Structure formats: structure tokens, C-alpha cells
From TrEMBL, chain A:
SUPFAM superfamilies hit by this protein: ARM repeat (SSF48371)
Record's bilayer topology term: Multi-pass membrane protein
Organism of derivation: Pseudoduganella albidiflava
Taxonomic superkingdom: Bacteria
Keyword Cell membrane attributed: yes
Transmembrane segments: 244-271, 278-297, 303-323, 335-353, 384-404, 471-492, 498-520
Tagged with keyword Signal: yes
Localization: Cell membrane
Family the entry assigns: Belongs to the binding-protein-dependent transport system permease family. LivHM subfamily.
Extent of the signal sequence: 1-23
Name the UniProt record assigns to this protein: Urea ABC transporter permease subunit UrtB
This protein's encoding gene: urtB
Keywords in alphabetical order: Amino-acid transport, Cell membrane, Membrane, Signal, Transmembrane, Transmembrane helix, Transport
Pfam families reported for this sequence: BPD_transp_2
TrEMBL record, chain B:
Protein name listed in UniProt: Branched-chain amino acid ABC transporter permease
Subcellular location field: Cell membrane
Protein origin, superkingdom: Bacteria
Keyword Transport: no
GN (gene name): urtC
Pfam families (alphabetical): BPD_transp_2 (PF02653)
Length: 536, 381
């Protein structure tokens, strides 16, 4: 009875196997996996991978997961839950006696990983394919993988992935024994190659010890030199654009830090040494809003930043108004005294924050939509967080410009700052305008604080790090000039980023400070001096 | 300022001379009391108190220097911490070399240079093993820097707030520079572990007493010198710069050289203060150049009473005394107290502690208090 059943099962299996013969794997391919020869096993992995079907993936995955077993008759079984699936036949059955696990060493495991990621090139999911192609490019294509990559290339529809694959192929072809193939690869790489290929291309140009060229073909050497040049110029272009972008981003940060100061110092003449602490208050407000979202709206956590903007503005606005009413209003027209009093305020604010939140930095996370970045020019990645800050800075500048130039409040502000007595005479409530102006400057500092919380540490010393820079921007730009502040900030950011690779971060910073000191000698009023005839 | 001032004012009134002499004698007695009477005796002054007073005298000298430019000439420097530190570093170079081979690595080089694997002194350390050459540096380095910086700043007629901000930038740049290890000044740690000065053990009570007396002598000397300057015709020009520079120019004075003179002198005095400070405290590092330190100096002047010379000395002692007490008793509250002090002084005590005395005096005489001189309308500022 048992025998009969067994025969029946075998027949069924045979029938099924013949039906799915297309999908099953040739036993000759599988046999080396069960054997002992390490080279044969690795070759087998590559050839199985080249089949590029679901069964092949299953086998390789089993090999990786240690669920591939050998049978006494030299076959292999993929074991799941005490049942074995035979890739050679496609049949699934109970485990026979004498099965043994396939031993995987590190070399084989590496080959399997490579084969599996190579097979991802054929995945229907474009995202997976892109990741696999980039991984392949980074790791380099081995000769065994070539057929697989060629197959993937033929099937690929996405232009970006196709280009990546072509580059990977060309990199592999550089090692080809055929001169024509090498030349085609070198020429192809002129458009897509990266700096990591430089040693390989350079090797083609090198001479042997006896003075002969390592690469006998002259045309090929010429092509290699051209490709090297193309790669170099592309790299330097990318570096230039990268510096430009990071300079713009640093400039935006400086701008956000200094914009509030351009109003309180530039327009009102108050040396607000507590400006840095208003930035800090904005950053800590962001931290609190984030904590609130964590507690009450964990689903909307990504949008805490949007909620933090108005909160930071109003908290900083309120602190600013409070300071103006209690301290600063008594000190108008005495800038040096405002410096002392506001420094005192800054000490108190700093120590308060230290008392409430502790002296350690607090953690402010980027929302997930700020993670990652956009890749341009091959290798240059522009992070979303930096892009967001640039856009944000532009929006805040536009808002400030609109408020100062297009609203009634802005009209009053400008009137009071130009001629306080006359403005008073025609009925402008100067005292209230002072309060609002200082509040506005402080509120903008709060907005700056939200931006700073996204790119740096949030701690009690946050303000101190930006106060000197902020004053430099305002003084450089010319007091009371919005355009000057914008150009001053962006200019400083760009100069800093282009100087940094040459001089190092600290020396670059020192050079900039010295530059500003010298610049102010030439133009004491800043870049955009107010035109007028007043002597002082 | 005043038509009454035609002949030279005497340096101090008779009563002021007496008070000055008494204070000097009392101050000079402290190290004697420390040396003569054993610990535990009723008249013994502990070394701690003596060291504290010596430190405060260095600060007072710096405050005095600052008052000369801010109180009398109206130039607010936020960079005097730089001159103080430069004087300290210049003296520190001698003290470092005086350690000889007694350092951790027993090399003729200071430990930090051994640590950086340097084989010999950089060129700017040349001759710094000579005490008198280093004393020259104490005067020259802050003096020359102040002269050059001041020349360009005053020539471009940078003044007021702008001047303050660029002095701050200068100090900040110098601090960044000195924080670097490869500058050759010990990086973050600066100079420390001093062992001897001119062959004497730097920690011995006798040496400390001498340093104390030297500091006192410099402080009193500087006070007399500054007083002499501000009561001279030169001093009146300086006050003219403070009160109305453009009017002074229209009369035919060129304010540049007057400002430059007083600015350089102030920097030199501040450098000397730093040089006196370093052997007594035993360390100099770049944090002396932080913005906070320079601004604190300004507070000493403001709290004591700017434009009085004696006031800043009192201010330096008051603030630092408070600081010593607070940081020992309520360390967390010190910044609150200092901050409040800043605000209250600027709001309510515009003439500082000395101003309070004057107010009380004039109240008793039932005469109205002097109107503040430097009040300017908002438009002018």
C-alpha cells in the first residue's frame, strides 16, 4: 500500500515536473552546489543567477538563509517547515533521510549576495532595480554577472537605470581582453564616468618599466586621456555647483539669523545682543512643538514643523514685546547702553533655558519629508533640508519686504525710523510702533530659530554661535537696508564655502572676519549706504 | 567743556589724595599680614584672600584702561579682552620657557610642542627666554596691534556702535586663531604649569607677595597717569571727541591722533594687566578672548561709574567680589545676578556707584543733580 502510494506520488511528481520543465533548474547546474569544489560552486551560483527566474531566486535565497540541503543522491532541496522543495523537479515533499545542510563560506556568501542583488535588476519594481543598479555600479560587475546585466539592460525601460547599467557594463568591459570592447567602454565612460574610475584609466596611460606603454593601442590611450579629461572637468563642475549650492544654503542660514537683527539694529538702532537668544527661543519652541506632537498627534508628527513656525514667531514676538516694554524703551538713542542691557538679558535668557531644559542639547528631529535629497550631475546630492531652508529664507525675506513696503504698519515703521518727531506730530503712535517693530524683529528671529533647529544643535549656547555672524551680515550689508542684508548674507555664505576647501574652516572664518574689518574701513556704512547729508 | 577750566586742575583734591594714600597703605599691608602672622592668628590674611585681591587689582587695571577710552573719549571697545590676553600670552611665553626641563616630557620645549612633535621653537618664540624681552613684548604686542587697528579704524572715521562691533569681530577672529593647536600657543589649554619667575618659585609666599606689591604699584601708577592725562589739555580734547567730535574738527583739531594715542595707551595698560594676571593665576588660554570677557570688563566700568577712573576700579572689585561669592554659594544664580546687574545699572544707575555717592551728596546740599552731559537726541544717534 505504502509502495503504491509512493509510486503514485512519483508519477504525479514526474507529470508535474514535465509540465513545469520550463521553470525548473537543470540538475547539472545545481549539482556543484552540493559538491565540495569552491570555484565550481561560485560559478554555479553565477549561472543560476543568470537564469533570472523565480526558482533561481528561491534557490539562492535558500543558500543565503541556510535552508538549502543536499540529498544523498547529489541533489539539493529548499527546506521550509520540514518539507523539501526540489528545484530540479519543482516537486515538494517530505524530507528524505540523510539530508544535510549546504555549508556556506564567506566567499560563497559574497557571491550569493552579489547574484541576488544582480537579480534584483530584473525586478518589476523600478525602485528596487535602481537601487540594485547603483549597488552594482558601486561594487563593480564581475565577469560572471555580465550575461545577467546584459539581460537586464535589454529589458530595461527606465532611462536613468539604463544609463547606470551601461556605465557598470563599461566599467566591467575595461578589463576585457578585446581591444575594441575596451575602446568602446572607454568612450562610453566619457559621458558617465566618475572619479572612482580614474586609477583604472590612469593605468592605461602608464608606461611599463622598459618604457613601452602598458596599453599597446595608441587610439585607446588617446580615448582614455580624453575620458580622463572629461571626468575631471565634470567633477570640477560638480564641485563648483556644490560649493555654490552649499554657499547659498549657508547664506540662507545667515540671512535667517540676521534678518531680525536688520530690523532691530538696522532700523531701530538697538544693539540687540539678546538676538541670538531670540533665535534660541525659536529653536526651543520648535522642540516643544515637536514634543507636543509626539505626545498627542503622533500620526501627524511629520507636520510639526509647519505648526512650529507660527508658534516660534509668536513666542519670540511676545518675548520681544516684553523686553521692549520693560527695558529697551528706556534706552532709545543710547545704542551703547542697549548693548549692555541686552547682553544682560541674553545672560538671563540663556540661564533660564539652562534651568528649565538643562545644559545639554535637546533633540530636534528632521521630519521625514526632509530626509534624502535630489541627485544632480551624477554624484552631487542636494539634501532636501538645505533646499527647504533656502526656500524658507526666500519666503521670509519676501514677507518682511511686503510688511515693510506694502502695509500700513510698514509705512508707520519707516516713518518713525526716519523722523520720529514728525511722525509723532502727524499722529503716528510712535511708542506702539516701536513695540511692534521690535516684536517683528524678534518674531523673525524666532522663525530663524526654527530653521536653525533643523540643521544644527539646539542648546542654550545656540544664540552665541550666531550673534557675531549676524552682526557681521548687518554691518556688511549696510544698516537699515534689506537688500544689503540679503546680499551680505548670501555673499558671506558663498565666500565662506569657496574659501573653506582652500584655507580650512577656521582660517577661512578668520579670513572672512579680517575681510569684513577691512571692508568696513573702505565703506564704513556698508555696501548699501543710506544716501544723505547728515554728518553723524 | 566748561569755561571755568582755564588753568590746569590739580590731580586730586586734598581729601582724595588722603583717601588714595590710606587705601594704598591698607592694600600694601595685606601681603605683610599674610607673611608675618602665622595662619590662625587674628591678623593673618589667608593666601586665598591675598590672591583674590591681587586678581581683582589686575581686573581693576584693565577696567581703568577701558575707562580711559570709553569714559573719556567715548570709544567703546568690546575687544579689550584681546589686549589683556595678548599681554598675558607675551608674559606666558617667558614663564613657559622658565619651566626649563621640568615639564612632563623633560624637554626644553613646552609640553604642548612636544605633544605636537615639534623639534624646535617657531621663529616668533625667539629670545622669549629673556624676561626683559618678554616684558617689552607685553607692551609692544598689544600696543602695535591697537595702533595699526586703531589707525585704520579712526582714519575711516568708524565710530560708536560700528567700532564696538568690529573690535568684537577682531577679538573673535583672534580667539579662533589661538584655539588652533598649530598656532604655537598651546591651543585650547594655553599656557599653564608655570614653575618659576626670574628664578624664584612662583608659588612661594614671598614671590606672591612681591607680585602683589608690583600689581598694586602698577595700578596706583596707572591711576595717577590716567588722572594726569584726563586733567591735562589733552584730556579736554579727548572729552571733546566724546561730546562732539565734528565740532572739534571744525575748530581745527584732527581727532585721529588723539584717539589713536589714548586707544593705544589703553591697550598697553590692558596688556600689562594681563601680564600681571598670568603669573598670579597660573594659566592663560584663549577663553580670555571670548566676547563675554570683554563685555564683562565694560560692565565693571559701567557699574563703577564711567568717566571717573576711580569708579571702574571700585566696579571691578564689586562685580568680581560678587562673582566669587555667588559662584561659591549659588553657582546657578550667578548669570541671573550678573544679567540683572547689567540691566539695572543701565536703567537706573547711569553714573554707576560713584554717581550714587554724588547723588546722595547733592541731595544733602539741596542742589539739583548735574544733568547728564552726553544725552543726545535720538535723531543724532
Amino acid at each position: 500500500m505504502a509502495n503504491l502510494l509512493k509510486t503514485l506520488a512519483a508519477l504525479l511528481v514526474l507529470a508535474f515536473a514535465s509540465l513545469s520543465a520550463q521553470a525548473a533548474i537543470d540538475p547539472n547546474l545545481l549539482k556543484p552546489l552540493a559538491g565540495d569544489d569552491p570555484d565550481a560552486r561560485i560559478e554555479a551560483v553565477a549561472r543560476i543567477a543568470a537564469l533570472a527566474n523565480d526558482d533561481a531566486r528561491k534557490v539562492l535565497q535558500a543558500l543565503k538563509d541556510d535552508t538549502l540541503y543536499t540529498t544523498p543522491d547529489g541533489g539539493v532541496l529548499v527546506v521550509t517547515d520540514d518539507r523539501g522543495w526540489n528545484p530540479a523537479t519543482g516537486a515538494t515533499g517530505p524530507l528524505p533521510d540523510g539530508v544535510d545542510g549546504v555549508v556556506v563560506n564567506n566567499r560563497l556568501r559574497g557571491a550569493v549576495d552579489g547574484a541576488l542583488s544582480g537579480m534584483a535588476l530584473l525586478s518589476p519594481d523600478a525602485g528596487l532595480r535602481r537601487t540594485a543598479a547603483q549597488a552594482l555600479l558601486a561594487r563593480g560587475v564581475t565577469p560572471e554577472q555580465l550575461p545577467l546585466v546584459a539581460k537586464a539592460l535589454a529589458a530595461e525601460t527606465d532611462a536613468g537605470i539604463e544609463a547606470t547599467l551601461r556605465t557598470a557594463m563599461a566599467v566591467a568591459d575595461l578589463q576585457s581582453p578585446d581591444v575594441a570592447v575596451r575602446k568602446a567602454a572607454v568612450i562610453a565612460l566619457a559621458d558617465t564616468g566618475t572619479a572612482s574610475l580614474r586609477p583604472q584609466l590612469q593605468a592605461m596611460l602608464d608606461k611599463n618599466a622598459d618604457g613601452s606603454h602598458a596599453e599597446p593601442d595608441g587610439d585607446l590611450r588617446l580615448a582614455a586621456a580624453n575620458t580622463l579629461n572629461a571626468i575631471d572637468s565634470r567633477e570640477s563642475r560638480a564641485e563648483f555647483v556644490g560649493n555654490l549650492f552649499y554657499g547659498l544654503s549657508l547664506g540662507s542660514v545667515l540671512l535667517l539669523a540676521a534678518l531680525g537683527l536688520a530690523i532691530t539694529f538696522g532700523l531701530m538702532g538697538i544693539i540687540n545682543m539678546a538676538h541670538g537668544e531670540l533665535l534660541m527661543i525659536g529653536a526651543y519652541t520648535t522642540y516643544l512643538v515637536q514634543a507636543l506632537f509626539r505626545q498627542y498627534f503622533p500620526n501627524a508628527l511629520d507636520w510639526y514643523l509647519v505648526a512650529a513656525l507660527p508658534c516660534a514667531f509668536f513666542v519670540a514676538f511676545a518675548v520681544g514685546v516684553l523686553l521692549e516694554r520693560t527695558v529697551i524703551r528706556w534706552l532709545y538713542g543710547r545704542p551703547l547702553e542697549t548693548l549692555l542691557a541686552t547682553w544682560g538679558i541674553s545672560l538671563i535668557l540663556m540661564q533660564s533655558v539652562r534651568t528649565v531644559f538643562g545644559a545639554q542639547n535637546v533633540e530636534v528631529a528632521n521630519p521625514s519629508w526632509m530626509a534624502g535629497g535630489v541627485t544632480v550631475m551624477g554624484s552631487l546630492v542636494l539634501p532636501y533640508s538645505r533646499i527647504a531652508i533656502i526656500i524658507f529664507a526666500a519666503l521670509v525675506v519676501a514677507a518682511v519686504w511686503l510688511i515693510l513696503n506694502k502695509t500700513r504698519l510698514g509705512l508707520f515703521v519707516r516713518a518713525v525710523m526716519q523722523n520720529r518727531r514728525m511722525a509723532d506730530c502727524v499722529g503716528v503712535p510712535t511708542s506702539r510702533i516701536d513695540m511692534m517693530t521690535f516684536g517683528l524683529g524678534s518674531g523673525i528671529a524666532g522663525l530663524g530659530g526654527v530653521a536653525l533647529s533643523q540643521i544644527g544643535n539646539v542648546g542654550p549656547d545656540l544664540g552665541q554661535a550666531y550673534i557675531v555672524d549676524s552682526f557681521m551680515v548687518v554691518v556688511l550689508g549696510g544698516v537699515g537696508q534689506l537688500a544689503g542684508t540679503v546680499i551680505g548674507a548670501l555673499g558671506l555664505g558663498e565666500v565662506n564655502k569657496f574659501l573653506e576647501p582652500v584655507a580650512g574652516a577656521v582660517l577661512g572664518k578668520i579670513a572672512i572676519l579680517v575681510f569684513i574689518i577691512i571692508f568696513i574701513q573702505r565703506r564704513p556704512q556698508g555696501m548699501f549706504a543710506l544716501k544723505g547729508r547728515s554728518v553723524e | 567743556m566748561n569755561a571755568r577750566v582755564t588753568s590746569r586742575k590739580s590731580l586730586f583734591s586734598k581729601r582724595a589724595w588722603t583717601a588714595l594714600a590710606v587705601v594704598t597703605v591698607v592694600a600694601a599691608a595685606l601681603p605683610l599680614l599674610n607673611l608675618v602672622f602665622p595662619a590662625g592668628h587674628a591678623l593673618h590674611v589667608s593666601s586665598y584672600v591675598m590672591g583674590l585681591v591681587a586678581k581683582f587689582m589686575c581686573f581693576a587695571l584693565a577696567a581703568l584702561a577701558l575707562d580711559l577710552v570709553w569714559g573719556y573719549t567715548g570709544i567703546l571697545s568690546l575687544g579689550h579682552g584681546l589686549f589683556f590676553a595678548l599681554g598675558g600670552y607675551a608674559h606666558g611665553m617667558y614663564l613657559m620657557r622658565a619651566i626649563g626641563r621640568d615639564g612632563v616630557y623633560q624637554s626644553h620645549l613646552p609640553d604642548f610642542m612636544v605633544f605636537l612633535d615639534w623639534k624646535e621653537y617657531p621663529w616668533y618664540w625667539a629670545m622669549t627666554d629673556n624676561f626683559w624681552y618678554c616684558m617689552l613684548l607685553v607692551v609692544l604686542v598689544p600696543g602695535v596691534l591697537a595702533f595699526v587697528f586703531g589707525y585704520f579704524a579712526f582714519r575711516s572715521r568708524i565710530k560708536g556702535v560700528y567700532f564696538s562691533i568690529i573690535t568684537q569681530a577682531l577679538t573673535y577672529a583672534a580667539m579662533l586663531l589661538f584655539f588652533r593647536n598649530d598656532t604655537g600657543f598651546g591651543g585650547n589649554n594655553g599656557f599653564t604649569d608655570f614653575k618659576r619667575i626670574l628664578g624664584f618659585d612662583i608659588t612661594a609666599p614671598g614671590t606672591r607677595a612681591v607680585l602683589y606689591i608690583v600689581t598694586l604699584a602698577f595700578l596706583v601708577g596707572a591711576l595717577l597717569l590716567c588722572r594726569w592725562i584726563v586733567t591735562s589739555r589733552l584730556g579736554r580734547v579727548l572729552q571733546g571727541v566724546r561730546d562732539s567730535e565734528s565740532r572739534l574738527m571744525f575748530i581745527g583739531y584732527d581727532p585721529l591722533w588723539f584717539k589713536l594715542f589714548v586707544w593705544t595707551l589703553s591697550a598697553v595698560l590692558c596688556g600689562i594687566a594681563g601680564a600681571l594676571y598670568v603669573p598670579q593665576v597660573g594659566i592663560i588660554n584663549p577663553s580670555e578672548m571670548s566676547a563675554a570677557n570683554s563685555i564683562e570688563m565694560v560692565v565693571w566700568v559701567a557699574i563703577g561709574g564711567r568717566g571717573t577712573l576711580v569708579g571702574p576700579i571700585i566696579g571691578a572689585f564689586t562685580v568680581n567680589g560678587l562673582k566669587s561669592w555667588f559662584t561659591a554659594t549659588f553657582p546657578d544664580l550667578w548669570l541671573f545676578a550678573l544679567g540683572l546687574l547689567f540691566i539695572l545699572v543701565t536703567l537706573f544707575m547711569r553714573k554707576g556707584i560713584l554717581g550714587l555717592f554724588e547723588d546722595v551728596k547733592s541731595l544733602r546740599r539741596k542742589t539739583p543733580a548735574d544733568k547728564p552731559v552726553e544725552e543726545k537726541s535720538r535723531e543724532a544717534a
